[in-house]
Amino acid sequence: MSFKIFLSKFLKYGTLMTSLGFVITVSLQIFARFFLSDVPPWTEEASRILFIYAIAFASGLAYRGNYFVFLEAFYATFSEKLKKIIDLISPLLSLVLFGFCAYYTLPVIEMGMDEYSPTLQVIMAVPFLSILILSLSLSYFSFLSLMNKIKFWKS
Fold it and tell me: Crossing angle for the helix pair 42-64 and 3-35, nearest 10 degrees?
């Protein structure tokens, strides 16, 4: 199994599991507000962390599938040469941006090893790890996109 297939499956199942967990915790919170005397305090924090992870897992898949917002109205007015340049620069800038983000996330994760979340009492490195997952997956898929654009541009 290639790394690309493994990463895609990891991101897909991560998105499914965290989205399902998010729906369950929010549903529990809604149920508790209407039918119980006290709302479990951990549901808000758990749903926040699960939502952040769902976005982190899904972002790489969205980049791979080209599902991000695209300003077609402006892009259509450009010349073919400018379109090629933009198509080449866009994944390069994404690679640089998320590469820097991944690099600078490592000290943040290290700082999170000494901190705990207020209600769940998990180390904050766990939520901060989502930034690294997002950054690395976007960097990888932007790198693949850049390589494909370079091959296409040369031909």
Answer: 150
